[in-house]
Automatic annotation (TrEMBL):
The keyword Cytoplasm applies. The lineage of its organism: Eukaryota, Metazoa, Chordata, Craniata, Vertebrata. It comes from Gadus morhua. InterPro entries: DUF4464. This is Cilia- and flagella-associated protein 299. May be involved in spermatogenesis. The gene is cfap299. Its main location: cytoplasm. Keywords: Cytoplasm, Nucleus. PANTHER family: CILIA- AND FLAGELLA-ASSOCIATED PROTEIN 299. Pfam families: DUF4464 (PF14713). GO terms for cellular component: cytoplasm; nucleus. The keyword DNA repair does not apply. It is found in: Cytoplasm; Nucleus.
């Protein structure tokens, strides 16, 4: 723990991670209405909070390490989608894939394009299995929150500010220097997911366009995990 946070008790820090379902929600709690008004960019405001511009905050690593609690681990026993009345096709598609993404049969990637709270068009790719491990998805399935791409996801792009980020996850390596463009390589079987919509589906992954009333565009890539000794995707 950083020296400037030694005055915080372990109990108070645990209260923070219990109160907020995600690190982004925690950052949002530190953003004032006036700051968001002048910045006109929710993602930029979050970045400034994370950098400590408005006071000391938990780092993402500190938050996530404390977030892995028994309550989150118990979600594997009871699905977050269980018993929910799901009216939108996207939520139904997530519910159909929840159990298999939790038990490792699938590692789905979700592409979402829509407008954020600041009415800016954003898009990105989300590692569904990883998000399930680090968040309580009951709020999404119950309609209290909307699942949106974040700067910490596999890929994120703000079409207004042109801010672009990419981060590998526990399940996927992000590869950006290929002739075909952005690709994701599964870390278990080393299979590569190409995002070209005209690429043919294979025996280990498929692409599904989902019609949703909640988002401008949704695409789900389902990867059937296999453990092999294939060599990594070659650099070119």
């Amino acid at each position: 723990m950083r020296d400037n946070m030694t005055d915080d008790s372990a109990d108070s820090l645990n209260d923070v991670v219990t109160q907020f379902t995600s690190y982004e929600d925690f950052l949002d709690s530190k953003i004032t209405a006036s700051a968001l008004y002048y910045l006109e960019d929710e993602e930029l405001a979050r970045q400034l909070v994370e950098l400590g511009q408005w006071g000391t905050v938990l780092t993402r690593e500190e938050f996530q390490s404390r977030k892995v609690s028994p309550s989150l681990r118990n979600q594997h026993r009871t699905l977050a989608s269980a018993g929910k009345e799901l009216k939108d096709n996207f939520l139904k598609a997530l519910a159909e894939r929840e159990e298999n993404n939790r038990n490792g049969i699938l590692t789905s990637i979700i592409f979402i394009r829509d407008r954020n709270a600041g009415v800016q068009e954003v898009s990105g790719y989300i590692d569904y299995a990883h998000r399930l491990q680090t968040e309580d998805f009951e709020a999404y399935f119950s309609g209290k929150k909307r699942l949106m791409p974040r700067r910490s996801d596999l890929s994120f792009y703000n079409w207004r500010t042109q801010m672009s980020t990419s981060h590998s996850s526990p399940n996927y390596e992000v590869i950006t220097d290929q002739p075909s463009g952005l690709v994701f390589q599964n870390k278990t079987d080393r299979k590569v997911l190409e995002l070209n919509p005209w690429a043919a589906s294979s025996d280990n992954w498929s692409r599904s366009e989902v019609k949703s009333d909640l988002y401008v565009q949704v695409v789900i890539y389902d990867h059937k995990t296999r453990s092999t000794t294939l060599t990594p995707y070659p650099a070119q």
